[in-house]
Amino acid sequence: MKEILIYTHKRTSRVLYIFNHILGEMLGLQPRCIHDKDEFEAYIGAKLNYSFQAFGEELFVMADDLLFERGISDHEITFGEYNDHKCFFMTYNKKSAYNFDLFSASFYLLTRYEEYLPFIKDKYGRFDAEESLAFEKGFLDKPLVNIWAIDLANKLQIAFPSLEILKSEYRFITTIDVDAAFAYRHKGMLRTMGAYAKDLLALDFQEMRNRTTAILKKQDDPFDTFDYQFAVHRKYNLNQIYFILFADYGTNDKNTPTHSRIFRELVRWIADHADVGIHPSFTSNSVSGKLKNEIINLSKTLHREVVKSRQHFLILHLPSTYRNLINQGITDDYSMGYASQIGFRASICSSFLFYDLEMENTTTLRIHPFAAMEGTLRDYNQLNTEESIARYKKIIAEVKQVGGTYISIWHNESLSDKKRWKGWREVYEKMIEYALS
Prior knowledge:
single chain; five-stranded parallel β-sheet; TIM Barrel; 14 helices; alpha/beta
């Protein structure tokens, strides 16, 4: 038996979204929402009462107001604990299975409700991890939505033993962002001469030598680590996705020129071995039509449709960034995470559909949250390689415990094993080994 009847005094798009996600996607059930009390009480089978009052001895979850509202308002959120984990939208009814509204709390986290409210932006205009409730209350490293869903599954199984509940299985996906395919080569005459001039002004003669020997092919270009990557991925039989910055040159967009024959051949070669998505440029969030052109140009190069994306610099402005992706035919986005801290931005480690809070509707865009980026550990948190390995193990263990999907972010540059990334190839392989163990 998979069907479960949900009584709620008011059916809203928010109610339907969260029940379809938690009961439908996460637990593999077939939720059917009604607001007829008599029909609910007469129903013989699995059922759940989500309202403001219990009818009898049915499984009851006391509701907060959030899922019955429209619009966005700054809620005064009450916090507590449930099974040693933080929870919020506290409710008080002795017949309720929970001391908080897990559906409202999950909706708040998945929709990134707090990111629609006023907040202090970081230097790139992003919502920073330190601004989040998860960071403030100390649960950024916990996939609370997964944890709550598992607890709900256990309660449902006890109440309705014949209910066929899906048990999710842990998965690992490695992803590589290609911000700059080459450090020195194939940049074009003007950019190369400008780089030499910059090195000269800084009296950085070692960098000038490195640039020259790489251009003359007397040593490898340090960012050209693709042979190493694919050797590792074959060794461990990994699922892999590459996100390619395929954009015009800009202050924060400095990949190889898209007209470069070498670069286009590299992109096609990558696509022969892995799944490829677009890495929308920094400026694509502010310049109309830019994202469309980048997707079209990458698609023409690959001779295939581009439907996956991850934002360069993890620029994510809700809801405009996601609407822009939807309008350009993107079906899956992998930008849901923070640059400054590892953890779970939406407090979940499994995919979910984007709910547009302003339009109050469930969209077709599937969000794939990531848990950790190497640059977060190395650059933002200033951790060494041993400390980083320990942090990777801790966050991966959280994902494994709930049967989620662990998605890592690395860059071709960070796998060079040179300069500031010396020793990080070992970190990469140890992360992979632990993720697969």
